[in-house]
Write a structure and sequence with these properties.
Blueprint lengths: L4 E7 L3 E8 L4 E8 L11 E2 L1 H19 L6 E8 L5 E3 L9 E2 L7 H10 L3 H9 L8 H11 L1 H6 L2 E3 L1 H10 L4 E2 H4 L13 H6 L12 E2 L4 E4 L2 H7 L6 E3 L2 E2 H8 L8 E5 L3 E7 L11 E5 L3 E8 L4 H10 L9 H11 L8 E3 L19 E3 L7 H23 L5 E5 L6 H11 L2 E5 L4 H13 L17 E4 L7 H19 L10
Parallel strand pairs: 1-5, 5-13, 9-10, 14-20, 20-21
Antiparallel strand pairs: 1-2, 2-3, 4-7, 6-8, 11-12, 14-15, 15-17, 16-17, 18-19, 21-22
Length: about 500
Amino acid sequence: MTGPLFLGLDAGTSQTKAGLFDLEGRELAVAEMATVVNRPRTGWSEIDPEIAFEAAIDVLGRVVRESGVEPNAISGLGVSAAMVGAWVLDRQGHPLRPGITWEDSRAQALIDRHSAEMPDFMSRIFQSSGSVMQQGCTLPVMAWLAENEPEILASAAHVISLKDYLRFRLTGTIGTDRTEAAVIPGSAAHRDRSQAMISLFGLDEHAHLLPPVFDSEACAGGLGPDVAARIGVAAGLPVAVGAGDVAATVLGTGSLEPNTAIAVLGTACMVGVVHDHPVFEPADVGLLFTLPAQRWYRAMLNVAGTLNLDWAFQTLAPDLSSNPERYQALDAMLDATPPGARGLTYLPYLSESGIIAPIVDPTARAQFSGLSPIHDRACMFRAVVEGVAFAMADLLDALSFDGRDLVLVGGGARNKRWVQMIADVTGLTVHVPAGTQFGARGTAWLAAASCGQTIDLTRPAGGQIMVRTHYPVVPGQCCPGFWNARALFGAAKARLFGTTVPAGGRK
């Protein structure tokens, strides 16, 4: 270990994570803790701002202490977090209400009303942002607040995201970055907010509440002395503006080369391809993320990824849900059940907001199909993980990806059997990079760039530490069962959506 070190913070709606990295991206220490999300009403998803900030301080402080490095060896800090939503502050920077997260769906009725009045409402948004707008995006949430909590916006000075709130608490400066501004919804082509989108939601009088926009690798300021002391680093430590969690994670995989397919199998499951220009095809489906270094990530999202497995443990196996050996038990169940789960199929649409790829359907819900007395708990678990793999194949098909390789990160990438299943179902060689905290790594690289380090964000580590575990397709022995399951999966989707939907999977 030589040279300067950089901290990365990645605050998600499942876990708040932090890591310490060198310029080659090696993880020197990591820490995480569960994020506390409150759901006071059906479809609402909120986080207490003070709890979120304390979690960030906790994981950053643990990383510094556990690394054992001297405070002056740490040269910068980058911040990432779950994107969009609304964190409303007054003129003194105090939160006026709990933070509203990306997965919140309270604005759906408002969106439905706009869509009824303007049949091309959602298409107009897609043509600007390149994304199917989710209910928890900042502009629809602000419009909901304007209608339902007008006194909150009347007292507000800022409406920002979780990342920008945490960075404000660390540095005292208000701002956002291009990765956030382009998806609130904004303009992917201009890598910025869009006045047309603000007007579309009737928010002109509230536009001043949105923060100034900076490059992700710009320096936002230095750590205040109090928070620096709590973390265990020097006061004034430079803090990068940072990026949304998707952009930071894609950056943290180590390559922003065009035509690179990258999947994130975390709480949500996202599959996408890196481009050097904004891609708006196929129209009116999927997401487009603005990245640093003049790159874009065209992605398809299944809102529920490992969330399906968490639900299965909690509901089907409560005896295992808190057992530290639950993943070994999962492996045993997968080994005990043949591919295809004896004809049992699971559609992994476990979200109150439905799905936005490969089609848009806010009413879509998860379900088992073909359940009979021959199916035990092991079959149900195998159907769940197979269902997620088939949904990933759907997302790749929607992207028309013609490559042979897929980079996979996220919590699901830690299960070797699941990764091999994804390789067999998609027909791609799956590569799992070294490391665990890719969002924190990506934002640590942004911190390095903000501090003046010579770093190429398209290949930040120069390929030196991108050691990857490779999972080629296994021919013959396990694929036939998957192809039978593929047909059942497609039939179950057709019944759910009342139409013919691509079955997923590749031969």
